[in-house]
Design a protein that fits this description.
mainly alpha
Amino acid sequence: MIPFDTLLIFAAASVLLALTPGPNWLYLLSRTMCQGTRAGFVSLAGTMSGLVVHMLAAAFGLSVVLLAVPFAFDAIKLAGAGYLLWMAWSTLRDGGGFEPKPMEPAPDATLFRQALATGILNPKVAIFYLSLLPQFIDPARGSVLSQSLMLGTIQLLIALPIDGTWVLLAGGIS
């Protein structure tokens, strides 16, 4: 079982992830402002589904790697930490940035599919699950799969109300 203090630290990291602007935020805010709160919540269902895809891929992937090559888990953790540092350096060095584009109104199915793709292709979430999640898993404490799923569920339960709040705020503006 994961120690409570580790869960708290992971929850804090999940809050920071959820409060950091990224592709999901942009998609949710733009769709909500263009089409209203209902479209925002349909889009939120899509982005959350994308997070579930990341969670399951990381959970099953880490479990398979650990079972196949136990020392590879440490290599994944070190590589993930190094990649996070490289990404931070690259972002600070280049200044980041993007150009938002206007969106045309779309039906619910399209909103969901586009939001799902946005969630799955979100590099911020991919980095979180591939680089940061392994730092909180201890193979000596039991099933890596169970630990991964527990941590992923915590991240989802934190992201949902935060992103939902943005949808509600953007809906009020629209």
